[in-house]
């Protein structure tokens, strides 16, 4: 598809996929300008023949693409950092509910991990491994110039759900510190810049798209059938236990799961109205979850207006995005209970006091046994958990090319991101419970968040003697985050037990930044960046952090000695940078803070109950985590850019890691505080290859492949940090942070197996040979992080038809099967929590 514009006017149109177009009210002598990325512009003068056949020539370089970077943009060929650009044509196709799914498997070193299979549920993006022990390892998301808050209000499944994936034009992934340092402390784990679609200087175009999706359960947890369970209990159980077996044949997983349906509808219009480019869109999505009762309904709207004034010296970009979501959350506890519930029992019991649902009763009280799982269908049908979320994200970016100083541009960016949610969880009085006094409950919450952004900066761009290109940007940024949280709990009991909770917080980030880009004849590039951040989360003495970066690049293919080489591009890049991190750190930990007691911990004086407050531990010396990254990269292209790619090697060191640390008794308001006590490193290699084996007028076939390797290691940590709580036993953990090991490594006993290869229950290897099995016999065995990530994507387009295939793989990452460890042992088959 190509843009066609009548030169000297705003009149224009866009060709269809076959290159056909029509344009009205043109006269002999008018000049038509044909434009498209990857092709040289062509001008055609209208003669007496108004039927035109025009062929555009591919440019020798497609690197004139403009890439959005922090507080500016550059041509793709001028990049010095490790930056990946994906446009809408590169995105994953199919039922995309959340924006993160658009790039899954597309970028080397970028791992997109779904939180669950629920519709629109949260997804984690991890760039070049984990970079912290206790803080968030999520990247910073910047949408149309607004750095977002990744937290979200209650009831939000995913912080990026407010944006319709169909509205996104490009993703730019900044991976190394030399490219992310301009964002300072919020860029410790990389930056993802999302640019939405804008209006164009042509006639209005309208687009309507609809999509229907069917979801089915791919697999179930392997459990005993009813007959297998009966045989087991009859073999190992006591007469009392065998007498409890039922006569039903219930597959509890079949009862809680079912096919689900989704629908997405989008309407958009873009063009120019009275000379002002604009775009508007409206979208509606509704997706069910395969867990019965799960549902997401989302309505999105967006408006972009991009007027210019004063002979294009003054440009304004206005963006407004809104979302309204209605969520119904199915109780996730039904998933685990469906795995462990007795398959010989029926779902319903007509004699049941719990709304007709079967429940295990305690012989003494007549209520549900407090060790028994609750009927999974009762959890799904007797708990109503809903929330509505509203979000508005708006910004105005104003660029003024100063008259008389046309090399200098002043920019102001004002952004406002606000969310509010209202939720309630109503539990029926018929829910099976061991509490004889329980008569239903109603929990309600209201949450609000406010994210305010103010950026102001100057950009100087000048070319000297047709050889020296210099761009300098410097400015100031202010960002404020506010949260209001209101909770109200009540139980419908005669004595009227109620509890209200109010929590408010605010933190501010104040910043100054500067960047200088220089290149000589498009061959040699230098970039230097510095940002100073001050966060209200840290004490005044350690509040400021200075984060510099440097990068250089050499376009080898432009040298005279490469004139006869077959490379279209060969560029070497080297970069170093520092970034800070306090993302996810609680507010004001250098001050004494007080927590109010819950309604079950009020203190009684006479007949009255009073809420009490306890002080939280403090650390007045808490300071920034600082990540230092060194990157070496090589970009290449040959065969007329039919084959392009890049190779990157990096070393990322994070110092002063924040983690929980023990303190001496009676020296603080607790025995643990957050402190800077460790160091970590990630080493990695990334390779990306893009090929176009076939490219003709009607047919194009592309194949893209990427692979990345990452090794994580904690290089300094004063004490072990237990992690990964499990359901087997009380307070048990199965992971650990330990010096010399990968973060979150699994720390387990070594299983003993019999002659047939089956594990012997409760028997472990005495690794230290002291004839005692205790924690001293645990050892490090694997970790949850992938050593290798791969993505293979292929697309074929023939005229108006296209087919795309996306695949991704990870190797070396392990999971702990808590279900098998807790439920898959013989002794638990006859425990009170099962039968």
Describe the protein.
By secondary structure, the protein is mainly beta. 5% of the residues lie in helices and 49% in strands. The protein contains seven helices and 43 strands.
What would a concise description of this structure say?
With 835 residues, the chain is mainly beta.
Itemize the secondary structure elements and their pairings:
Layout: E1 3-6, E2 12-14, E3 31-35, E4 42-45, E5 66-69, E6 72-75, E7 83-87, E8 110-114, E9 123-127, E10 140-143, E11 146-147, E12 168-174, H1 177-180, E13 191-196, E14 205-215, H2 226-236, H3 239-242, H4 252-256, E15 260-273, E16 276-288, E17 295-305, E18 308-309, E19 314-328, H5 333-340, H6 376-381, E20 383-401, E21 408-427, E22 441-464, E23 468-491, E24 497-520, E25 524-535, E26 544-555, E27 567-581, E28 594-596, E29 603-605, E30 608-610, E31 613-615, E32 625-638, E33 643-662, E34 672-695, E35 699-717, E36 721-725, E37 733-737, E38 745-748, E39 751-753, E40 759-764, E41 779-780, E42 788-798, E43 801-811, H7 818-823
Parallel strand pairs: 10-13
Antiparallel strand pairs: 1-2, 1-3, 3-4, 5-6, 7-12, 8-9, 10-11, 12-13, 14-15, 15-16, 16-17, 17-19, 18-19, 19-20, 20-21, 21-22, 22-23, 23-24, 24-25, 25-26, 26-27, 27-32, 28-31, 29-30, 32-33, 33-34, 34-35, 35-42, 36-37, 37-38, 38-41, 39-40, 42-43
């Amino acid at each position: 598809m190509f843009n066609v514009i009548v030169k000297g006017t705003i009149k224009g149109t866009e060709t269809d996929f076959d290159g056909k177009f029509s344009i009205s009210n043109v006269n002999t002598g008018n000049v038509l300008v044909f434009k498209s990325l990857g092709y040289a512009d062509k001008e055609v003068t209208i003669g007496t023949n108004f039927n035109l056949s025009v062929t555009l020539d591919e440019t020798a370089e497609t690197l004139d693409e403009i890439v959005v970077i922090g507080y500016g943009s550059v041509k793709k060929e001028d990049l010095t950092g490790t930056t990946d650009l994906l446009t809408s044509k590169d995105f994953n196709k199919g039922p995309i509910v959340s924006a993160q799914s658009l790039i899954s498997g597309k970028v080397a070193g970028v791992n997109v991990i779904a939180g669950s299979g629920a519709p629109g549920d949260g997804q984690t993006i991890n760039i070049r491994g984990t970079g912290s022990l206790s803080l968030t390892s999520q990247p910073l998301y910047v949408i149309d110039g607004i750095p977002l808050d990744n937290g979200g209000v209650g009831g939000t499944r995913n912080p990026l759900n407010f944006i319709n994936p169909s509205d996104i034009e490009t993703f730019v992934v900044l991976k190394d510190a030399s490219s992310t340092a301009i964002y300072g402390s919020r860029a410790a784990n990389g930056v993802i810049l999302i640019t939405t679609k804008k209006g164009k200087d042509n006639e209005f175009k309208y687009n309507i798209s609809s999509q229907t999706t069917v979801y089915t359960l791919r697999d179930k947890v392997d459990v005993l059938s009813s007959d297998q369970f009966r045989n087991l209990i009859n073999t190992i159980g006591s007469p009392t236990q065998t007498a409890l077996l039922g006569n039903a044949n219930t597959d509890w997983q079949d009862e809680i799961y079912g096919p689900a349906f989704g629908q997405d509808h989008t309407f958009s219009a873009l063009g120019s109205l009275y000379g002002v480019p604009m775009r508007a869109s409206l979208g509606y999505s509704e997706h069910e979850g395969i867990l019965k009762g799960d549902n997401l309904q989302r309505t999105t709207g967006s408006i972009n207006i991009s007027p210019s004034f004063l002979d294009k010296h003054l440009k304004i970009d206005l963006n407004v995005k809104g979302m309204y979501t209605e969520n119904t959350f199915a109780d996730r506890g039904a998933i685990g209970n469906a795995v462990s519930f007795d398959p010989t029992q029926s779902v319903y019991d007509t004699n049941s006091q719990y709304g007709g649902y079967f429940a295990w009763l305690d012989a003494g009280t007549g209520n549900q046994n407090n060790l028994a799982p609750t009927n999974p269908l009762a959890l799904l049908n007797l708990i109503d958990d809903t929330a509505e979320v509203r979000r508005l994200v708006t910004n105005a970016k104003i660029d003024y090319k100063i008259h008389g100083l046309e090399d200098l541009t002043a920019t102001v960016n004002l952004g406002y991101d606000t969310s509010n949610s209202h939720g309630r969880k109503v539990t029926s009085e018929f829910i099976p419970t061991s509490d004889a006094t329980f008569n239903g409950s109603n929990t309600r919450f209201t949450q609000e968040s406010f994210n305010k952004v103010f950026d102001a900066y100057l950009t100087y761009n000048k070319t000297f003697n047709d050889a020296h290109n210099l761009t300098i940007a410097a400015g100031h940024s202010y960002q404020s985050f506010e949260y209001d949280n209101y909770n109200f709990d009540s139980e419908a009991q005669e004595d009227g037990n109620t509890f209200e909770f109010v929590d408010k917080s605010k933190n501010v980030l104040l910043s100054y930044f500067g960047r200088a880009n220089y290149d000589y004849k498009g061959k040699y590039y230098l970039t230097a960046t510095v940002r100073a951040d001050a966060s209200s989360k840290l004490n005044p003495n350690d509040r400021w952090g200075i984060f510099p970066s440097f990068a250089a690049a050499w376009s080898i293919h432009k040298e005279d000695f490469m004139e006869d080489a077959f490379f279209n591009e060969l560029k070497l890049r080297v970069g170093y940078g520092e970034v800070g991190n306090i993302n996810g750190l609680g507010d004001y930990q250098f001050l004494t803070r007080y927590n109010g007691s819950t309604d079950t911990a009020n203190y009684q004086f006479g007949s009255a109950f009073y809420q009490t407050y306890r002080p939280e531990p403090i650390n007045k010396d808490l300071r920034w985590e600082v990540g230092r990254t060194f990157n070496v990269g090589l970009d290449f292209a040959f065969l007329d850019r039919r084959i392009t790619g890049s190779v990157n090697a990096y070393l990322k060191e994070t110092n002063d890691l924040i983690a929980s640390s023990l303190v001496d008794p009676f020296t603080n308001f607790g025995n643990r505080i957050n402190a800077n006590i460790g160091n970590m490193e990630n080493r990695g290699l990334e390779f990306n290859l893009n090929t176009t084996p076939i490219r003709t007028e009607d047919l194009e076939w592309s194949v893209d492949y990427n692979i990345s390797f990452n090794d994580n290691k904690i290089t300094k940590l004063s004490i072990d940090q237990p992690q990964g709580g499990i359901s087997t036993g009380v307070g048990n953990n199965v992971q650990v942070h330990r010096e010399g090991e990968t973060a979150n490594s699994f720390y387990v006993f070594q299983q003993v197996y019999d002659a047939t290869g089956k594990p012997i229950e409760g028997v472990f290897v005495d690794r230290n040979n002291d004839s005692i099995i205790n924690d001293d016999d645990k050892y490090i065995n694997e970790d949850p992080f992938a050593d290798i990530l791969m993505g293979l994507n292929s697309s074929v387009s023939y005229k108006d038809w296209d087919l795309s295939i996306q695949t991704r793989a990870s190797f070396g990452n392990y999971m702990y099967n808590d279900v098998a460890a807790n439920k898959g042992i013989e002794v638990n088959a006859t425990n009170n929590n099962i039968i």
